[in-house]
Specification:
- By secondary structure, the protein is mainly alpha-helical.
- It has helices spanning 8-15, 21-30, 35-47, 50-60, 67-70, 73-85, 89-101, 110-119, 127-141, 145-157, 165-183.
- The termini are far apart.
């Protein structure tokens, strides 16, 4: 069981296989108080093979809600880098989820914003990744009115009638957010 592992090699061995949901939840709770465990999972996500990195990221998605915003900025920076470079769509989706729940670095990474702007309309990505890219682009552009205008232009190009319901919904919510920022 992952929760009972005590060394980095034991955690790596256990993360290379299939994890039961109860273990994922228990490990997610453990992240809040076990810094060594948290750092090990972070390193595995950054350097590990796909299965181990996916399992480590999956565990992080079950962390207490207070944990992700309090993580050091280099965690989010590494996750951004890995999300842009990974070939695993599962890992990409999990990393984008973690990034969306975290405090974004300031000043933000323009390469990551570009990635999100391209990713939200790219048909090569699954809908979940495209939706997360759209949400993250909005989050990154929010403090910058000129970037909100660019995001709005990109969203207007996306024909709502041609989008699946999930993307249409996210697009609509982001557009409403942009309009409300312009009024406020």
């Amino acid at each position: 069981m992952v929760g009972q592992a005590s060394s980095a090699s034991e955690w790596q061995d256990m993360l290379s296989g299939r994890l039961p949901m109860r273990e994922v939840r228990a490990c997610g709770k453990r992240l809040a108080y076990d810094g060594m465990f948290r750092d090990t999972l972070y390193r595995i996500m950054a350097d590990g093979d796909s299965r181990m990195a996916e399992n480590a990221a999956w565990i992080f998605t079950y962390a207490d809600t207070d944990l992700l915003p309090s993580l050091p900025p280099h965690y989010v920076d590494t996750w951004m880098e890995r999300a842009m470079d990974t070939r695993s769509e599962t890992l990409r989706r999990l990393l984008l989820t973690l990034i969306s729940r975290s405090v974004l670095p300031h000043p933000f990474r323009t390469d990551f914003l570009d990635y999100c702007l391209i990713g939200m309309s790219s048909s090569r990505y699954p809908y979940s990744v495209r939706a997360l890219c759209m949400k993250l682009a909005y989050k990154l552009c929010l403090p910058h009115p000129e970037l909100l205008d660019e995001l709005k232009s990109n969203l207007e190009i996306m024909e709502p009638d041609l989008l699946p319901p999930s993307l249409r919904s996210v697009r609509c919510r982001v557009m409403v957010g942009i309009v409300s920022q312009k009024r406020g």
